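Progress note, sequence design subtask.
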C-alpha cells in the first residue's frame, strides 16, 4: 500500500534561484583546492595527492579500492567544521543528528541508521578516532578540534575495521607534531548565537627522536538554543561551553621503531539536552495538548507550530523535582535540577607503536581507552504550567557512563614481490552504565510524594551493559600481472553482551495500582552472544597511473544485544518467573538480532589533462538483513526494539575535481543517487507492511559543488574566496510510521522536502598563513530541515503532532588566526 505523507511547505523556486545565482558566481569566482567532499584538489604533480588509511595502510585516494570521501584540514579550517553535523553538506547521503537521550546522537550512510535513543545499540557506522574504535555515538557531541583529516568510508568495512561497520566508518585523525616548531592561535566570534571560540597549539621537536603537540580550545555560546516567547522558562537562552585539549607525544629513535601517544580531554556543559528539537503541528496545523491517560487530564500546549524560527518549546523551571536518592549514582554536582542540562566529560587515550621486525615486516600495537561520564536533565514534553507560572513537566536526571578498553595487534608485510599480507587481532572490553530517574506514568502534581520515601518521581532504574568482543583477520594482496591485482581476506568476530535490570526505587502507588515491580527489584544478567565470519574480495585493474577500476564483494556485521529501555511493568515482571521457560521467553523478547550486510560495488578512479581533472565513480548494491530498529510506542510510553526483515541500498556516487587554468581557481563536486528501501515483509508498530517503502533519511539525489579561489594581492597579501552549495532531495524522517494513520487526514509519515544549503567564506591574509582574517557563513539562507521525527511523549489520543529534530540555523563568524 502507499503510505500517506506530509511535507514541509516547499520553497523550491527561491532555493533554485539561490542555487543558480551562487553557481553563476562560482563560475566567475571560486576558491582553493578543495572539492565538495572536502578533498584537497591535487595539482598537476603527485606531491599534493590525498593519502588515506581506509585499508589500515597509507595509500593514495586514487589507488584505494574503497568508496571514501575525505574532508581535509583546509576545508575544516575554511568553513569552521567543528562538529559532525557539519559534514553533511560535504558528504552526500550522510546523515548526522546530535542530541537527545540514550545514545545522544545518530549517524547514517546511504539510508542505514541506528537508534539515537538507546545506548544498547552499536552504531551501523563505526566511529574511529585516531585508530580507536569508540563504541558510543555520544562522542559525536564533542567538538572537532585540531583535526588533520576526516574520512567517511561508505559501505561495509569489516575486514580492516572490524565490528559495527555494517554501513560504513567515520574516521577522525588528529594533527601530529610538526618537524619544526610552530605556534598557532585562532579566535572567532559568532553573531547569531553570540558565541566566541579561542584556541591554538604549540608543536615541534623536543629532540631528534621526540616530538610534541599541545593543543587546546575553549568555546562559550550564549544562545545555543533560544526558547519561544510563550514558553515558561527561568532562562529563555540556553548556552553551551566546551573545552577540549589534546597532548600528543611522538617518539621515533630510528627507522625501525616509532610510537605515538595521544591524550584527549573534552568537557562540555550545555543548558539543553534535546537542543534543536521542536514540535510539528501536523496536518491540521494546530498545537495539540499533552495528555495524562491515568487521570484523563489534558494540558495546554507550549509549542507554537513554527518549526523554522529557530525558537524551541522546551520549558524549564520545573517545580515538581526532588533530589535523587543519595548513594544511587545520580550525583549532579551543583546543577539545578529544575533546569535542563547536558554535562559530558570525555577522556580518550591512544597509544600506537610500530615495530620493524625486519625490513619487510612491521608489527603494530594499538591500545585505546575511553572514559565517558554524562549526566543530563530535560523536559522532553511539558504538561503545561503550575499555578505559580512555572512548568509542570516531567523531569529527572539520567546518568550515562562508558569505560572501554581496546587492543589491536597487526602484522603487515612490505615485500618487493607480488604478494603482501596483513594479519590482525582485536579485543574490546566495555562497561556502559545507565541510571535513570523517570516520570512516565504519574507526575507528582497529581499523585504527591511517595508516602514511604517522599520522592516525587515514578522510579529509579539501573540498567548497565557489559560487552566483550574478540576478532581476528587475515588479508592478502596478489599482483596477478603488471595491471591486475587481487586482494581480500576474512574476519572472524565473537561478541558477548549482558545486561542487568534493577529498580532500586519504584513509587509505591505504581507498584500497588499498576502491578509494577517493587523497590529493590533486580534481575540478570540477561546474556546475548553471536559470532560472524565476514569475507571480502577485490579485483583491481590499473592500466596506467591515472586509471584504476575495481570490483569488490563485501559483507558487514553489527552485533545484536539486549534492549535496556524496559519499564518496571510488563515483560520485566516475567524475568524472575519461577518457571525457567517463562523467564527465558521474557528475556528473549528483549534480545535483538545481529545486523548483517552483503553486496558489492564497482569503482572507477581516473585523472587526466595532466592530472588537473579527477573523475571518480562508484556503483554499489548492498542488502542488509535484520536491520536494528527502535521506535517510540506512545501507547505504552516505551521504546519498541525489533529487527527489520531486509533493507536494500543501491545507487551511484560520483565526485570530481578540476584545477582550472585560472591561477588559484579550483572547482569540485559530488553527486549521489540512492535507492534505499525495505525489500521484504516488515510490519511496523502500527501494523502497516512497509515492504517497498523508502528507508529513513535516504534522499534519492544529493550532491554539492565547491568553489575555491586564492587570489594574490601583491607579494605579501592573499585574498581567499570559498563557497559550497549542497542539495538534498526529499526523504522520510522516520524508520517506521510514528503513529497510526489518522482516518480524517490520511497522515502517516513525515517527509522532509528537498533543500539547498549554502556556505561561504572570505579571507585576507599572508600567503604563508602567518596571519589571516576571515568572515565565514554557514547555512547562509537559514534553511531549516527535519532530520528525525517521532510520536511525542504524552501525546493526546489521535494527535498528529510530531517531535522533530532539526539542523542548526545560520552562523556567521569573524575570525582572526596567526601562525609562526
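Output:
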Amino acid at each position: 500500500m502507499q503510505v500517506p505523507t506530509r511535507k514541509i511547505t516547499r520553497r523550491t523556486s527561491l532555493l533554485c534561484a539561490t542555487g543558480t545565482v551562487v553557481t553563476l558566481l562560482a563560475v566567475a569566482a571560486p576558491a582553493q583546492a578543495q572539492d565538495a567532499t572536502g578533498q584537497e584538489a591535487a595539482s598537476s604533480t603527485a606531491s599534493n595527492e590525498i593519502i588515506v588509511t581506509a585499508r589500515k595502510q597509507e595509500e593514495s585516494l586514487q589507488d584505494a579500492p574503497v568508496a571514501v570521501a575525505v574532508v581535509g584540514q583546509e576545508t575544516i579550517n575554511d568553513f569552521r567544521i567543528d562538529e559532525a553535523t557539519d559534514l553533511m553538506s560535504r558528504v552526500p547521503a550522510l546523515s548526522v543528528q546530535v542530541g537527545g537521550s540514550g545514545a545522544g546522537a545518530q549517524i547514517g550512510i546511504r539510508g542505514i541508521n541506528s537508534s539515537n535513543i538507546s545506548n544498547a545499540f552499536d552504531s551501523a557506522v563505526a566511529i574511529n578516532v585516531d585508530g580507536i574504535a569508540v563504541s558510543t555515538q555520544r562522542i559525536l557531541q564533542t567538538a572537532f578540534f585540531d583535526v588533520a583529516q576526516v574520512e567517511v568510508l561508505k559501505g561495509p568495512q569489516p575486514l580492516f575495521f572490524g565490528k559495527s561497520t555494517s554501513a560504513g566508518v567515520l574516521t577522525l585523525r588528529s594533527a601530529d607534531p610538526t618537524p619544526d616548531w610552530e605556534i598557532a592561535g585562532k579566535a572567532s566570534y559568532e553573531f547569531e548565537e553570540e558565541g566566541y571560540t579561542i584556541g591554538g597549539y604549540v608543536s615541534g621537536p623536543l629532540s631528534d627522536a621526540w616530538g610534541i603537540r599541545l593543543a587546546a580550545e575553549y568555546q562559550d555560546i550564549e544562545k545555543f538554543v533560544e526558547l519561544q516567547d510563550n514558553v515558561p522558562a527561568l532562562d529563555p537562552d540556553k548556552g553551551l561551553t566546551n573545552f577540549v585539549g589534546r597532548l600528543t607525544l611522538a617518539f621515533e629513535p630510528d627507522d625501525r621503531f616509532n610510537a605515538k601517544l595521544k591524550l584527549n580531554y573534552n568537557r562540555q556543559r550545555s543548558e539543553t539536552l534535546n537542543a534543536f528539537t521542536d514540535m510539528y503541528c501536523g496536518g491540521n496545523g494546530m498545537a495539540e495538548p499533552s495528555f495524562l491517560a491515568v487521570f484523563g487530564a489534558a494540558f495546554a500546549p507550549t509549542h507554537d507550530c513554527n518549526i523554522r524560527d529557530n525558537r524551541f518549546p522546551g520549558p524549564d523551571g520545573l517545580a515538581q523535582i526532588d533530589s535523587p536518592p543519595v548513594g544511587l549514582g545520580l550525583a549532579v554536582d551543583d546543577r539545578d535540577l529544575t533546569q535542563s542540562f547536558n554535562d559530558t566529560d570525555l577522556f580518550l587515550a591512544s597509544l600506537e607503536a610500530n615495530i620493524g621486525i625486519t625490513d619487510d615486516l612491521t608489527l603494530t600495537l594499538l591500545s585505546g581507552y575511553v572514559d565517558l561520564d554524562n549526566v543530563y536533565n530535560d523536559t522532553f514534553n511539558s504538561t503545561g504550567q503550575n499555578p505559580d507560572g512555572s512548568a509542570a513537566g516531567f523531569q529527572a536526571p539520567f546518568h550515562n557512563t562508558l569505560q572501554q578498553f581496546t587492543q589491536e595487534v597487526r602484522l603487515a608485510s612490505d615485500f618487493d614481490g607480488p604478494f603482501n599480507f596483513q594479519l590482525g587481532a582485536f579485543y574490546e572490553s566495555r562497561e556502559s552504565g545507565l541510571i535513570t530517574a523517570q516520570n512516565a506514568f504519574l507526575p507528582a502534581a497529581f499523585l504527591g510524594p511517595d508516602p514511604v520515601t517522599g520522592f516525587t518521581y515514578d522510579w529509579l532504574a539501573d540498567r548497565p551493559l557489559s560487552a566483550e568482543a574478540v576478532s581476528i583477520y587475515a588479508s592478502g594482496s596478489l599482483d596477478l600481472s603488471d595491471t591486475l591485482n587481487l586482494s581480500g581476506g576474512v574476519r572472524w568476530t565473537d561478541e558477548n553482551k549482558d545486561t542487568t535490570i534493577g529498580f532500586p526505587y519504584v513509587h509505591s502507588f505504581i507498584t500497588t495500582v499498576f502491578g509494577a515491580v517493587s523497590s529493590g527489584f533486580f534481575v540478570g544478567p540477561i546474556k546475548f552472544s553471536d559470532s560472524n565470519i565476514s569475507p571480502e574480495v577485490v579485483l583491481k585493474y590499473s592500466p596506467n597511473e591515472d586509471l584504476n577500476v575495481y570490483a569488490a564483494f563485501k559483507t558487514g556485521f553489527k552485533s545484536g544485544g539486549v534492549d535496556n529501555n524496559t519499564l518496571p511493568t510488563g515483560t520485566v515482571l516475567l524475568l524472575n518467573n519461577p518457571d525457567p521457560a517463562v523467564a527465558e521467553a521474557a528475556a528473549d523478547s528483549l534480545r535483538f538480532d545481529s545486523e548483517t550486510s552483503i553486496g558489492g560495488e564497482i569503482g572507477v578512479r581516473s585523472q587526466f589533462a595532466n592530472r588537473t581533472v579527477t573523475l571518480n565513480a562508484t556503483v554499489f548494491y548492498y542488502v542488509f538483513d535484520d536491520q536494528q530498529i527502535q521506535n517510540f510506542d506512545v501507547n505504552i510510553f516505551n521504546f519498541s526494539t525489533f529487527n527489520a526483515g531486509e533493507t536494500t541500498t543501491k545507487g551511484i556516487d560520483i565526485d570530481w575535481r578540476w584545477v582550472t587554468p585560472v591561477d588559484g581557481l579550483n572547482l569540485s563536486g559530488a553527486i549521489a543517487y540512492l535507492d534505499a528501501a525495505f525489500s521484504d515483509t516488515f510490519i511496523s508498530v502500527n501494523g502497516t507492511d512497509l515492504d517497498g517503502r523508502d528507508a529513513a533519511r535516504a534522499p534519492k539525489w544529493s550532491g554539492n559543488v565547491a568553489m575555491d579561489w586564492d587570489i594574490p594581492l601583491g607579494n605579501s597579501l592573499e585574498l581567499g574566496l570559498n563557497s559550497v552549495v549542497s542539495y538534498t532531495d526529499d526523504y522520510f524522517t522516520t524508520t517506521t510510521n510514528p503513529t497510526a494513520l489518522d482516518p480524517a487526514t490520511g497522515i502517516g509519515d513525515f517527509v522532509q522536502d528537498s533543500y539547498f544549503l549554502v556556505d561561504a567564506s572570505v579571507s585576507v591574509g599572508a600567503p604563508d598563513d602567518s596571519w589571516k582574517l576571515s568572515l565565514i557563513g554557514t547555512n547562509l539562507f537559514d534553511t531549516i530541515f527535519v532530520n528525525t521525527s517521532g510520536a511525542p511523549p504524552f501525546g493526546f489520543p489521535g494527535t498528529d503532532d510530531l517531535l522533530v529534530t532539526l539542523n542548526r540555523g545560520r552562523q556567521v563568524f569573524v575570525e582572526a588566526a596567526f601562525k609562526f
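Residues 699 and 731 are 5 Å apart (CA to CA). Work on this subtask will continue into the next period as scheduled.
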